[in-house]
Amino acid sequence: MNKSNAAVFFILFLLSATVIFFNQSGPVLFFRNYIGETLRPPEIIFSKAVNGILFFKSIFFDIKKIKELNIELTEENLELYGKVAKISQLEEENDFLKEKLNLIDKKSWETSLAYIIGRDFENNRSFIIDKGSRDGIVVGMPVVLRGEIVVGRISDVNYSSSKVKTIIDTQSKIAAVTALSKISGLAQGLGSDITLNLIAKNKTPEVGDLVISSGVDGLWPRGLIIGKIKNVRLEETTVFNSADIELLADFRDFNSVFVILNSLTP
Fold first, then answer.
1. pLDDT on residue 147
2. More confident residue, 106 or 64
3. What is the sign, positive or negative, of the torsion defined by CA atoms of 74, 79, 83, 88?
4. CA atoms of 260 and 220, how far apart (whole Å)
5. Which one, 22, 68, 180, 196, has the greatest CB density within 10 A?
């Protein structure tokens, strides 16, 4: 090793020893600790501020989600309450008709449970069921819901399925009578609603009175529930009075119906 190289090595050795010595010395450690302690509060404050922002952001979105969920649950509950109220009302009114007014046919109808496999969602005038000619279904058979609520009639039959036209179809006509006031008329579909026509001019049905099939047309058994009077139209220029009928059930809410197999009116 020549002298120049030895001198460079010696200088580097001294610098290294100096750095190691001062790095572990009291003043240097004190200075480093002081700088660290001085910078720590802003770091902690910034960290806490960021955490706080994230916390409140999380709370905000959680509250928003809870409100949205609460609205959905409220709507579902209202829908359920409405369905329960309808079912309860139908059962009470049906029992009242059977026990008090004695208007329901005492004959036990033979029915066939059928499931809906296709719907006309656009206007709700027809649907398809999973029963056909192999099950004894024929054109003209009445179709009802639980509680003997009229839905419609079989309009077309295939081997394993059938088409049902609902009572709101414009071709639907049912000889009807109001349950309490005994006012006769013709329940006719309007395409989206149903009305009670041919009411005698001196007769005025009560709003809320049930409308049932009278059976005088020979097409529908007596005592099936069609709906209830929603409002009455009394016009001097017409020969007959008429009334709007409110259906007691939305047919789109049901997945199954009953086909009355022996519906001949006694």
1. 77
2. 64
3. positive
4. 10
5. 196
Contact present, 222 and 105 (Cβ < 8 Å): yes
Number of alpha carbons in the 13 Å side-chain half-sphere of residue 185: 33
Q: Which residues contact 246 (CB under 8 A, 6 or more apart)?
A: 227, 228, 229, 230
In the chain, where the domains are located: 1-102, 111-260
Helix, strand, or coil (residue 173):
strand
Q: pTM of the full predicted structure? A: 0.59
Question: Which pair of tokens denotes residue 266?
Answer: 């006694």
Structure tokens at 5: 């190289």
Q: 44: helix, coil or strand?
A: helix
| 204 sits in which H/E element | none
- What is the architecture of the domain spanning 111-260? Beta Barrel (2.40)
Query: What percent of the chain clears pLDDT 70, i.e. is strictly above it?
Result: 57
Within 13 Å of residue 134, how many CA atoms lie on the same side as its CB? 8
**What local confidence, expressed as pLDDT, does residue 123 receive?**
67
Q: How many CB atoms lie within 10 A of CB 186?
A: 17
Region 103-113 average pLDDT: 68
- CA 170 to chain CA centroid, nearest Å: 27
What whole-number distance in Å separates Cα of residue 174 and Cα of residue 230? 17
**pLDDT band with cut points at 50, 70 and 90 for residue 231:** very high
